[in-house]
């Protein structure tokens, strides 16, 4: 973070601030950083727009004609550094890799691995022939972490590669004037004080104080979110530097015209630079799923340590040596580590990420997959996300009637009566008095998809006319233009003079469009049903009403008029002079009004509705005008029908706003300037008491404040804050994107900075895709629970053999290798297949999960998995173990206490219950066969487990067995178990021995028992909602 | 485990929340209910488990294990046992071999004559090797079966009946007592061809006996092991002692023994010896060093 540079910026612009700060220079760095961040959150302290051009020149010792001298420029360049944004501190690849290796769940496995190596070291130091089990286990654990770490690292690298492809690599050029000479230089070399010339199509190279302009318009959308191009002129029009006309900002685009300006800030000191610095300085907190995994690790560690210590004490009491007891302790703790779970969780998240990517949600960070699912508030940008990001003609007023135009993306909406003469006249005016034109070679594209050269409103008109009246180009060819006065801010109109279509008619046609009130002033007649009628007061009232109504819809209204010029005054060949107007521009004939809006996307109202039913609050935050914002909010349902703002209530009841009880209004529209004066408490109050909120005219810094406010929101009187998603495309959104729990950037219209700051990218820029994200996020949370419940269950049949081996001295029923075969082999596919499980109920109809109460893994899940199902599974395993030993001659009664003799290599005549004598190897083969049988039994009981884990509340019979991956998983684990048992050579490789067919069936009754038990449990759960069974067992 | 709800100070109130009368996050009645539930639950599970074990036991025969494929072919074990396949001692230090001597004495005690006197339980099966002694089917019909007497004196110099109560250990001519592991209803069959039997062992091949032969395991030890002498009925395992009817029907059963005396082992050197039994249904395994054979390392030092 370059706070040093920020300092120098303050030296340059806000000297009084620096003085105030100087006594604090001794502060610690950390404090300064916080202060610095707060400073960045404040509004832009630019002052040059209020100075005269001369003052600015003086300040930067530059000249309005000659520009800087080369020497001065070099000096400034050396002082300020290049004009480029400091790239956000990119994390080196190895740090990212290490984060994957040591983050979250991996820590648990690493701890396990280290304990294993420790145990092996103890054994190696104290025994002559240490058993290799602990060593292998340690190696396998490390391998699992490293492999899954690599896997998720590459997974993330893949999505960040997609990110990089978005980057614009073309170096920018700038035209500067130095020592009176125009020169094209690299934009990076531009310094403060440089005189810069920009023209339509250029990117503004730095923050400019405009000194002269010719019809210059800039597109500030990436900075403010406002899609409308804005005029730039040398006059200061507003105190706020972001609103004034005489400042052009770094990295915005000049749409048309030319302008000259003096560079006032470069690089990180520009407004854009400050936002970028603010963004990279913000720290985003842990993802909800990371918190869940942490909680899970706490639980698992708790259980592991509890078991470990208990059996350590028991072992010591039973007369084992301290060292042996320590090794048992480590063994038990390690046995509690679910080796396969890390991989399972990673794969489940990856699968969901892929599924979301197919639905146009690209997730940058795997953990963010679930975040949308727990989101309780979405702060959405307006332009481009909720709207189509193109001006479209929405309404027309002619023949004293408002007509509605079709604004849908696919032209499926209703149309209006096009037969009226007036409409034809209006269309002609709109087509002729219009400088926009389609770019070449797009004839095969649908009209709405074509690119247009020209500003947004003219493009809207062009498309509208092209759609309803056919080729505008032909119309223009037939009516050749002879003169034109372009739009300027003093006239507020644009006019052009054309020949008429009729060859014999030598009159000229004057067409004009502009601000409606200005146009009306110039008209004396009005066209009604194709006939000119005098403009009377009644018509003027009608006009006013229509104008107000359309304006109230947040639409931008244009007025149109025309005049067929009398031939006697303006004969053919009359020289129209546009600079010194030598023709009439009064007493025209008013034709109609057309109003335009950036219409909402078709899918958005539905998506907003879904969010609402899913308990998610949607807040609109936009840089646009409150009226437009409110209109769109109403259009998409962010302010739902029937809900009123304070202002609405006031106007309905005809009382002043101050008399309305703010509690009565559920909706509210808050203006950025009001927001500035709100205290934190007032802000919280607004967020808490209004369900439907629109923030308009907000600055980037305010967006950040809003997001922080939302995150502070307390839900259901719990201590944790709300989980906030923010969508945005502009640079101005990026601090908010970063601060949000999940930042969602736009793939098409989004700026690079916003994509960098975001966790997720909507490839189709459509708000509706967020709903998909929410749905997938909620589903994966549910399914991860099931997956974890499934995986954890088999932990019990894996630990208990070791416990009994220690406690009652029986031959070991299940070895380390077989445990690994379960955790990393047979359990894998079924656990992953649960990620494909369909939702049990409509997950979009319930409230967002409560992060404090609704945990991924809770005590109830542990209780069910460990205490109940796991225990039944263990019995199933032990039963097969006893069957095999008994059928080979060792009855259960003989086994207790046999361990020392059994494991004695020199004892080669160990007697069984029938008096037969066994050599060490012979009985070891039986023991390994038992391991295999125990393993197969776990597979068998896990069949039932995966089926019961499919649902948490419903019966399997309600849910069905439609999950094909799960069915595949059942067959796969069985086939794998058979393969491991029967493949020749497995006895050497994994110490697994072939089983007699009957031994496969030992665990069947237990498998069945699990199924029946859990079905009954779920039945009680459904029958008795909120009852004891639900309280104790619903996870 | 659900601590930290109120931050760090939560532990104490988690342990005992006096306000809500909660111990470890649960009230007394809540603890009682969950405890009762698990008590009943585990009670039922234990019942079911015991039930299935009982069902298992019902399927088992009392006299013959269901499967014997892992225990047969039989192992060949020896007394005294080796530790890590090694028997090493110092001639001059009785402490180093007393455990071996003791182990042989204890083992041979069961073969002492006074233990075999009871006529109802023991019978003489002859002083020469004979064929299998059939005692009926493997069921309870004929009751407990008689056991053949095995005279300890047949072990000759290794019987420990003479003055030498150290079984030759003291003089550096140690005895090993070898036995073929017991397997219910197993009838070892004498070798059908002599191909596999080393020449030195051929002299002891005779009908109705499973011969045993010991020799050096390593080529270079060939001249260091000297003469090996064998004692026992037929210098091998005579067939009249088979088959074994199992612990229940054949409680007094004495398996035939062979004593192997190494009379001229080279001292102060590790010698690897291998003893093998030969028979048609005797097998050996790469991995199992005691199946049908054993090998043992002798290190006798005299300094």
TrEMBL record, chain A:
Region annotated Disordered, chain positions: 1-33, 219-239
Domain Cation-transporting P-type ATPase N-terminal: residue ranges: 47-121
Primary location class: membrane
Keyword terms of this UniProt record: ATP-binding, Cell membrane, Ion transport, Magnesium, Membrane, Metal-binding, Nucleotide-binding, Phosphoprotein, Potassium, Potassium transport, Sodium, Sodium transport, Sodium/potassium transport, Translocase, Transmembrane, Transmembrane helix, Transport
Subcellular location: Cell membrane
Bilayer-crossing regions: 101-123, 135-154, 296-321, 327-351, 788-808, 814-839, 860-884, 925-944, 965-985, 997-1013
UniProt biased composition (Basic and acidic residues): 15-33
Presence of the UniProt keyword Kinase in the record: no
Matches recorded under PROSITE patterns: ATPASE_E1_E2 (PS00154)
GO biological process terms held by the UniProt record: intracellular potassium ion homeostasis; intracellular sodium ion homeostasis; potassium ion import across plasma membrane; proton transmembrane transport; sodium ion export across plasma membrane
Pfam families in the cross-refs: Cation_ATPase, Cation_ATPase_C, Cation_ATPase_N, E1-E2_ATPase, Hydrolase_3
Keyword Transport: yes
Topology in the lipid bilayer: Multi-pass membrane protein
GO molecular function ontology, one term from the record: metal ion binding
Biased composition (Polar residues): 219-234
Gene Ontology cellular component list: plasma membrane
Function statement: This is the catalytic component of the active enzyme, which catalyzes the hydrolysis of ATP coupled with the exchange of sodium and potassium ions across the plasma membrane. This action creates the electrochemical gradient of sodium and potassium ions, providing the energy for active transport of various nutrients.
Subunit comment: The sodium/potassium-transporting ATPase is composed of a catalytic alpha subunit, an auxiliary non-catalytic beta subunit and an additional regulatory subunit.
Entry-linked NCBIfam families: ATPase-IIC_X-K, ATPase_P-type
Family: Belongs to the cation transport ATPase (P-type) (TC 3.A.3) family. Type IIC subfamily.
Listed name of the protein: Sodium/potassium-transporting ATPase subunit alpha
Record lineage: Eukaryota, Metazoa, Chordata, Craniata, Vertebrata
Gene that specifies this protein: ATP1A1
UniProtKB/TrEMBL annotation, chain B:
Membrane topology summary: Single-pass type II membrane protein
Keywords: Cell membrane, Disulfide bond, Glycoprotein, Ion transport, Membrane, Potassium, Potassium transport, Signal-anchor, Sodium, Sodium transport, Sodium/potassium transport, Transmembrane, Transmembrane helix, Transport
Record has Transport as a keyword: yes
Gene Ontology terms describing biological process: intracellular potassium ion homeostasis; intracellular sodium ion homeostasis; potassium ion import across plasma membrane; sodium ion export across plasma membrane
Highest taxon in the source lineage: Eukaryota
Quaternary structure annotation from Swiss-Prot or TrEMBL: The sodium/potassium-transporting ATPase is composed of a catalytic alpha subunit, an auxiliary non-catalytic beta subunit and an additional regulatory subunit.
NCBIfam families per record: Na_K_ATPase_bet
Protein family (similarity comment): Belongs to the X(+)/potassium ATPases subunit beta family.
Protein known as: Sodium/potassium-transporting ATPase subunit beta
């Amino acid at each position: 973070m370059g706070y040093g540079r920020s300092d120098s910026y303050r030296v340059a612009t806000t000297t009084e601030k620096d003085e105030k700060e100087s006594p604090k220079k001794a502060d610690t760095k950390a404090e300064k950083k916080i202060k610095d961040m707060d400073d960045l959150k404040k509004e832009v302290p630019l002052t040059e727009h209020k100075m005269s051009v001369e003052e600015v020149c003086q300040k930067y010792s530059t000249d309005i004609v000659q520009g800087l001298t080369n020497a001065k420029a070099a000096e400034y360049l050396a002082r300020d550094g290049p004009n480029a944004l400091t790239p956000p501190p990119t994390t080196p690849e190895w740090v990212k890799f290490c984060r994957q290796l040591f983050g979250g769940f991996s820590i648990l496995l690493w701890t396990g691995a280290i304990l294993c190596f420790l145990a092996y070291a103890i054994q190696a130091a104290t025994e002559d022939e240490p058993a290799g089990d602990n060593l292998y286990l340690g190696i396998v654990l490390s391998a699992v972490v490293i492999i899954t770490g690599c896997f998720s690292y590459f997974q993330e690298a893949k999505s960040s590669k997609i990110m990089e492809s978005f980057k614009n690599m073309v170096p920018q050029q700038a035209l500067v004037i130095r020592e009176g000479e125009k020169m094209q230089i690299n934009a990076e070399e531009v310094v403060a004080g440089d005189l810069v010339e920009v023209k339509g199509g250029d990117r503004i190279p730095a923050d400019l104080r405009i000194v002269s302009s010719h019809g210059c318009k800039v597109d500030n959308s990436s900075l403010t979110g406002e899609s409308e191009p804005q005029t730039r002129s040398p006059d200061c029009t507003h105190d706020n530097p972001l609103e004034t006309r005489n400042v052009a900002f770094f990295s915005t685009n000049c749409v048309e015209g030319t302008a000259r300006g003096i560079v006032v800030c470069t690089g990180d000191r520009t407004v854009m630079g400050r936002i970028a610095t603010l963004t990279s300085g913000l720290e985003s907190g842990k993802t909800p799923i990371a918190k869940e995994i942490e909680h899970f690790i706490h639980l698992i560690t708790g259980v592991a340590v509890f078991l470990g210590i208990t059996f350590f004490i028991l072992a010591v009491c039973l007369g084992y040596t301290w060292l042996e007891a320590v090794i048992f302790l480590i063994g038990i703790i390690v046995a509690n580590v679910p080796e396969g779970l890390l991989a399972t969780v990673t794969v489940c998240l990856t699968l969901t990420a892929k599924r979301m990517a197919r639905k146009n949600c690209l997730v940058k960070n795997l953990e963010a997959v679930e975040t949308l699912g727990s989101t309780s508030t979405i702060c959405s940008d307006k332009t481009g996300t909720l709207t189509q990001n193109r001006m479209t003609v929405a309404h027309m007023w002619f023949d004293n009637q408002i007509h509605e135009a079709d604004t849908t993306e696919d032209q499926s909406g209703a149309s209006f009566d096009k037969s009226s003469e007036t409409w034809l006249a209006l269309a002609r005016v709109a087509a002729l008095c219009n400088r926009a034109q389609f770019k070449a070679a797009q004839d095969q594209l649908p009209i709405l998809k074509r690119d247009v050269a020209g500003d947004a409103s003219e493009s809207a008109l062009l498309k509208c006319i092209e759609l309803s009246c056919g080729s505008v180009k032909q119309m223009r060819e037939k009516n050749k233009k002879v003169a034109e006065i372009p739009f300027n801010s003093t006239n507020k109109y644009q006019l052009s003079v054309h020949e008429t279509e009729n060859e014999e008619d030598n009159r000229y046609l004057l067409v004009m469009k502009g601000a409606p009130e200005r146009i009306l002033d110039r008209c004396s007649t009005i066209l009604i049903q194709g006939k000119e009628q005098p403009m009377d007061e009644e018509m003027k009232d009608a006009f006013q009403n229509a104008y107000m109504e359309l304006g109230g819809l947040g639409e931008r209204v244009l007025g149109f008029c025309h005049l067929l010029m009398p031939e006697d005054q303006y004969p053919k060949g009359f020289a129209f002079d546009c600079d010194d107007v030598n023709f009439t521009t009064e007493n025209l004939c008013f034709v109609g009004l057309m109003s335009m809006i950036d219409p909402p996307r078709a899918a958005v109202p539905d998506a907003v509705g879904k969010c609402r039913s899913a308990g998610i609050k949607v807040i609109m935050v936009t840089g646009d005008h409150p009226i437009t914002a409110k209109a769109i909010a109403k259009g998409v349902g962010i302010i739902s029908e029937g809900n009123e703002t304070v202002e609405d209530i006031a106007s309905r009841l005809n009382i002043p706003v101050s008399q309305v009880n703010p509690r009565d209004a559920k909706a509210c529209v808050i203006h950025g300037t009001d927001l500035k004066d709100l205290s934190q408490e007032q802000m919280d109050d607004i967020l808490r008491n209004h369900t439907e909120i629109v923030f308009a005219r907000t600055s980037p810094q305010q967006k950040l404040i809003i997001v922080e406010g939302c995150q502070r929101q307390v839900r259901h009187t719990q201590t944790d804050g709300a989980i906030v998603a923010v969508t945005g495309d502009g640079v101005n959104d990026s601090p908010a994107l970063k601060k949000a729990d999940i930042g969602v950037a736009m793939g098409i219209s989004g700026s690079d900075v916003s994509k960098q700051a975001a966790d997720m990218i909507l490839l189709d820029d459509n708000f509706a895709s967020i709903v998909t994200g929410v749905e997938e996020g909620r589903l994966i949370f549910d399914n991860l629970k099931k997956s974890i419940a499934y995986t954890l269950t088999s932990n019990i049949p894996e630990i208990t053999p070791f416990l009994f081996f220690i406690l009652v001295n029986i031959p070991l029923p299940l070895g380390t290798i077989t445990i690994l075969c379960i955790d990393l082999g047979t359990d894998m596919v079924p656990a992953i297949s649960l990620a494909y499980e369909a939702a049990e109920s409509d997950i979009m109809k319930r409230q967002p999960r409560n992060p404090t109460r609704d945990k991924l893994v809770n005590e109830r899940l542990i209780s069910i998995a460990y205490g109940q199902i796991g225990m039944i599974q263990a019995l199933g395993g032990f039963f097969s173990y006893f069957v095999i030993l008994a059928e080979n001659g060792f009855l259960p009664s003989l086994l207790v206490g046999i361990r020392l003799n059994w494991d004695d290599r020199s004892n080669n005549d160990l007697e069984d219950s029938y008096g037969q004598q066994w050599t060490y190897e012979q009985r070891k083969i039986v023991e390994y066969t038992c391991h295999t049988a125990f393993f197969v039994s776990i597979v068998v009981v896990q069949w039932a487990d995966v089926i019961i884990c499919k649902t948490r509340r419903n019966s399997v019979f309600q849910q069905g067995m439609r999950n094909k991956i799960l069915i595949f998983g059942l067959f796969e684990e069985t086939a794998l178990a058979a393969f491991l048992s029967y493949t020749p050579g497995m006895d050497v490789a994994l110490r697994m021995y072939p089983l007699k067919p009957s031994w496969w069936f030992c665990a069947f009754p237990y498998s069945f028992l699990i199924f029946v038990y859990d079905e009954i449990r779920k039945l009680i759960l459904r029958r008795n909602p909120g009852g004891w069974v639900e309280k104790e067992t619903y996870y | 485990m659900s601590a930290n709800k109120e931050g760090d100070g939560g532990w104490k109130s988690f342990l005992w929340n006096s306000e809500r009368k909660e111990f470890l996050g649960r009230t007394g009645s809540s603890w009682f209910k969950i405890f009762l539930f698990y008590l009943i639950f585990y009670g039922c599970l234990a019942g079911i488990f015991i039930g299935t074990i009982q069902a298992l036991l019902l399927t088992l025969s009392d006299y013959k294990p269901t499967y014997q494929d892992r225990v047969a072919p039989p192992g060949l074990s020896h007394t005294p046992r080796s530790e890590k396949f090694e028997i090493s001692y110092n001639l001059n230090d009785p402490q180093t071999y007393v455990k071996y001597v003791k182990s042989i004495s204890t083992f041979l005690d069961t073969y002492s004559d006074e233990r075999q006197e009871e006529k109802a339980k023991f019978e003489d099966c002859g002083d020469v090797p004979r064929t299998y002694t059939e005692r009926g089917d493997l069921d309870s019909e004929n009751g407990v079966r008689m056991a053949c007497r095995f005279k300890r004196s047949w072990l000759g110099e290794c019987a420990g009946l003479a003055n030498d109560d150290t079984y030759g250990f003291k003089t550096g001519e140690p005895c090993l007592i070898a036995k073929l592991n017991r397997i219910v209803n197993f009838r070892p069959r004498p070798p059908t061809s002599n191909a596999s039997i080393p020449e030195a062992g051929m002299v002891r091949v005779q009908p109705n006996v499973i011969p045993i032969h010991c020799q050096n395991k390593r080529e270079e030890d060939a001249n260091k092991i000297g003469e090996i002498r064998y004692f026992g009925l037929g210098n091998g395992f005579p067939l009249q002692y088979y088959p074994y009817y199992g612990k229940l029907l054949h409680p007094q059963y004495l398996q035939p023994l062979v004593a192997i005396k190494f009379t001229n082992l080279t001292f102060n050197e590790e010698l690897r010896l291998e003893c093998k039994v030969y028979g048609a249904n005797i097998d050996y395994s790469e991995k199992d060093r005691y199946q049908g054979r054993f090998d043992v390392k002798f290190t006798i030092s005299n300094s």
